[in-house]
Amino acid sequence: IIAAIAIPSMSRGASGAGESALRQNLQTLRKAIEMYRSEHNGAFPTEDDVRRQLLRFTDIDGDYNGTRTATHVYGPYLHKIPRLPVGSKAGNDKIKATGVLGNGTRGWFYIHETGTILANTKDDEVDSNGIPYNQY
Asked: Mind listing the pLDDT tens digit for each residue in 114-136?
């Protein structure tokens, strides 16, 4: 009887933790992208260099460098890219910026025209309420 009560409760706790971590990671990524935008005259990180532009120092044009220089004074905006905590790509911290949402092996999907970052999960990977993770 105790197992019948405890096991479903623990399962919900684990899935709830993943959902919470996903929300936190997305909030972290979105804040970093918005901070980059505010310091780069309204430009979002680029499709090709989003990862480096968030993790390194940049100049006003978005050119990146591993160290701060007289011109590379912005950022870094993140210490590391968080790992996707849910779905079939859980544990992956790579960012996909082209193609179709849910395809490929990367954890995050980035739309550089709008600065949108999403979980790169398929539509059938859903939370405990049936909401696809890629709609968070």
From this structure: 999 999 999 999 999 999 999 99
